[in-house]
Design a protein that fits this description.
This protein is mainly alpha-helical and 385 residues long. The protein contains 15 helices and no strands.
Length: 385
């Protein structure tokens, strides 16, 4: 793989963007292509899981035990892909070893992570206020009841329980606050040991339901710090060079075998799901590394990786807005187009369009209207390091 020093000669970036700080916006033919592509797949699957739930609500797909069981771990796994990748890039490009280097790094990350957090907290709450104006939509099961935009709800969402997917930003910021980049094997070993200890505590709290009494952000940090640390370890020990096709095949087989066993016996204990998540992360990155580690990019991922964060942040908001418009136009169980269930087919198709093409179009528009794209990708508009 190319070294950091060679990045600028291998890729062309906008002057205000640094290659290691894309936060979902990958440059073309970069040595980190395999990491960004794994994150892109995760985002597409997050939106697909949402669509799966909508199809069940519409009756297109029957209610099933897989969805109920999968809801306990699929989204945490897909978010784990981002935590793992963030840890890998953190170790690869940063050297945070003392208070000065930490402060210098954090002053940028605070902007990069908090801007989309607050922006999409407000947008999600505003969408909740709008949805409350359409009672039939609320009763349809297509959307869940959500708090509206009030000062009280904003404070609660910002500091206690986030709305939508934005809790990721605070959790990741927390990782940057408490983690230093290890410089020695002993330091790396200590960090892994700490991560395993914290994860063990999180598992015990979850399996005994004591996690209900732990603040959301603290519990999420405890539960996911190990994935961030394992990303650091992968880079520290240069294990990406060991992610061969054989490793990828074994990881995928083990992931599906363990997953099938847990599903058949309806096992949802945190310890077992943590093992499944670890196998899933290894599968994600091993598959991506074997295909893209040399920096080569194909057209599909070259396009998708430009909108990874946009699809992830916008898909549910846009789908709800589309549902609101369709119900207002009569595409509902009691609307003008209720006959023969045609309204459901229209809503299903519109959901897919809202989650993928519409999210891309909105992001493209934001990027061209003054600098509104800043709310999704602040790093694009900040001076490069």
């Amino acid at each position: 793989m190319a070294t950091t020093a060679n990045i600028s000669t291998k890729i062309r970036l906008k002057p205000a963007v640094s290659a290691h700080e894309m936060h979902g916006h990958a440059p073309k033919s970069a040595p980190d292509t395999w990491i960004f592509n794994a994150e892109a797949v995760s985002t597409l699957l997050i939106a697909a899981w949402y669509i799966f739930g909508v199809f069940i609500a519409l009756g297109i797909v029957p209610a099933n035990s897989f969805h109920a069981w999968g809801s306990t771990w699929i989204i945490p796994l897909l978010l784990g892909v981002f935590y793992f990748g963030a840890g890998l890039l953190f170790q690869r490009y940063q050297k945070v070893t003392d208070i000065c280097s930490w402060a210098n790094y954090m002053k940028r990350e605070v902007i990069v992570l908090l801007v989309p957090f607050f922006a999409f907290t407000i947008l999600t709450l505003a969408t909740g206020s709008l949805m409350a104006l359409q009672p039939e939509l609320m009763r349809s099961g297509l959307i869940e009841a959500a708090p509206g935009l009030t000062a009280e709800n904003f404070i609660h969402a910002a500091f206690i329980q986030p709305v939508g997917p934005v809790g990721y930003f605070i959790v990741l910021l927390g990782f940057f606050v408490v983690t230093r980049t290890p410089q020695t094997t002993r330091g790396m070993g200590v960090l892994i040991a700490l991560g395993l200890m914290v994860k063990t505590v999180a598992v015990v709290l979850a399996d005994t339901n004591e996690s209900l009494f732990i603040p959301y952000y603290i519990m999420q940090m405890m539960d996911n710090w190990i994935w961030f640390i394992l990303g650091i370890a992968l880079q520290f020990f240069k294990l990406d060079q060991k992610l061969t096709k054989g490793v990828a095949a074994c990881a995928v087989v083990a992931f599906f075998a363990v997953g099938a066993a847990l599903f058949v016996f309806n096992i949802t204990e945190a310890a077992c799901l943590s093992v499944l998540t670890a196998l899933g992360l290894l599968s994600f990155y091993a598959l991506s590394a074997t295909r893209f580690e040399n920096g080569a990019q194909n057209k599909f991922f070259g396009f998708v990786t430009q909108y990874t964060m946009a699809i992830w942040l916008m898909h549910e908001i846009l789908a709800e807005l589309v549902f609101f418009a369709l119900f207002a136009c009569g595409f509902s169980p009691i609307g003008a187009f209720a006959c023969d269930g045609g309204w459901g087919i229209v809503c299903a198709a519109a959901c897919i369009l809202a989650c993928y093409p519409l999210a891309v179009l909105v992001m493209a528009a934001l990027s061209r209207i003054w600098k509104l794209g800043f709310i999704v990708y602040p790093a694009r508009y900040l001076p490069a390091k």
